[in-house]
């Protein structure tokens, strides 16, 4: 027997379970699990992701031959449970057909509802439901979705947006009405006729009337939609492999639009924005699911508490709230209790915050979906820590619940309270995704991309302002600072996607009138144009005129608890790459336990120093260079003192000068003229020196310890600055701990003379001052040769710090500065799975790290091993460094919390 492709679920028989996500997709697996928990779910079946793969590889006919019999059996089972027949005109069973991949991809793939309707069945539905308007509305929705998704009737111009909506608008104008809901059964019947003619005239085919033809068309279209443009973009942004495929869920339709005892909604077992342990969500009476998501009508809140909070934000008085926007808790108390019981069961069962969809059909509750809810970084942290405190999950799970990169959301800036005082709020919407954003208005997603990329500006900060967003807007949303929509609730597309991206979003700001054609946004009598500045507070829903300064976030509460927990489990230490006392202070506040890399050259560019550096470069002999270096010494010493103070008691790794000297001289005419004037030397001399410094491969040229080998006086000055600074700070009662690092070493014969200068200088300074500090002299491992001979280098060096940027560059033969022109293509084609400069190439470069670590330890068991390349802040790479047995990683200050958590996850994972 070949493996089944169809898995049933319902109150009678359920084949699947939550653990079968790979095969059934998230939605299908959880529908099955809900049935197992005796939660009311409309019966149906899931066609597996293996069928999707078979379809992609073998095509339509082969697939149909494989699944035909099983699908027919599945439909028969649904018929039996619902007591209706598929294709029975008198009382038709209608089906929904939805995609459902392993990972949730909200709104990215296609859905078809009300499948099974045709000209005969619509009459049967009307007779059975006693609601003619409902029957025709269901039919026109079906044709609209099917015409678009399966038959491929697409807009012919940008203005048209949706050809079916154009037809609806024309009829509304003709009938003199504004809202779809004002159209009656006869109007909707008209629409059905017009839709069918539109399909016939545009596509030269008729709308299929045979329910089975409809069903096969829909199933194949969902499989096709796995490869549509927006699904591809989403996969790219979220690292979802193409090979996963989607499952298809075929399920009995239930209706939330059968009158006032019917409703449909979306709920979260905890607050997806803040993480608060509060059941919440939105619903609409007499509506279909997509009405809630599309944000066309203002949804009502499920709980009374939520409703009161909403009214306060929306400036709706209590009387109006109760009369027009009552909560489900008030409106349908019995059903609310049932929903509450279901949400409790589901959260307790999955031990995670659930995102639920439900429909109430004529007083009966049906659950349509449950999944682990997407949430902001802040909610992720709070939910993990509260579930831990509530005993729902253990410490290990709590650590693994937070995606390290999402901590970025919490580290994101908020508005400067001082600046906010003068800010003028112009409108208020829903606090859909927290954070502060300030930028220039654009009205189209493609323009958001162009502006932010600099095609029409120069990397501008933009706020994408839309009536509502759709999956087509994804790229534009991802580059915007923030998103503002005039329509839509907390569960609208914009809100859900923005939260997923950790991006500030205010949705449903009803007072804002958006005119994308005129590129204006109007509130009352005031109009803003494209390019005008506005600011958004995604945590309160406020929209402000103009540009408002932002400041760093607070790092206490649940964040602090999570970090403390991470520190208890992690083995790797986390240091920071910091060149200034300010950076060092930030890093320490974020939990760094030392500086893993101070790039001393960064200090050389500031103010008058660059002049002394240039003097040194221009000097004709050693004496000249020493004169210039003497000017640099006090400045450099001052810098180091600042670092030692900020890192009192913790190691500070100071790297000797690394970049090629030509980086410090101007290459353009005007710059050279100015330098000549400033230094009072002929411009010809400068030009000559710049030419001498020119290199074909500067990254492989005269840089790193090669500078110190040829100009030992540079090393001497830097070492003197380090030790004088350390003694000065020690005299203040603090504990400086310098680690002097020699860059770009490839042989112990390069290391030894440089280390000798450092040690000799230390002894000299100690003798002059009559005091000492503890220090180490070590090296970077950033050339492949250094890794290969790490035992010989390790016999002399007290520590290794892997410079994985250069090590990657030299091992892979990819220029760090030029690889951008081809690497993305490499990754797209799967030649390398990831950009090796972002996440360490474990198979190749990683071997050198392991080898060098092992060789280093073989000659010096207590050798200190760290990483200071960009990879030190990448969670996947941190997992690798943990396994390789290193002692610490070092990363930019704002990645320190991310690295601490990633290190803990590596330890417990
Ligand atoms: C490295 O090469 O990984 C490193 C940290 O040094 P830099 O990036 O300064 O070359
Ligand atoms: Mg380097």
Textual characterization of the structure:
The chain has 909 residues and is α/β, with parallel strands linked by helices. It has 5 domains: 6-252, 2-Layer Sandwich (Dna Ligase, domain 1); 263-375, D-amino Acid Aminotransferase, Chain A, domain 1; 413-551, Glucose Oxidase, domain 1, CATH 3.50.30.10; 570-660 and 695-908, Phosphoenolpyruvate-binding domains (TIM Barrel), CATH 3.20.20; 663-694, no CATH class. It contains 38 helices and 31 strands. An 8-stranded mixed sheet has the order 12-22-21-14-15-16-17-13. β18 (513-515) and β19 (520-523) form a beta hairpin. The longest helix has 25 residues, at 622-646. It is elongated.
Concise summary:
By secondary structure, this protein is an alpha/beta fold.
Write out key terms for the chains shown:
binds magnesium ion, D-amino Acid Aminotransferase, Chain A, domain 1, alpha/beta, Dna Ligase, domain 1, Glucose Oxidase, domain 1
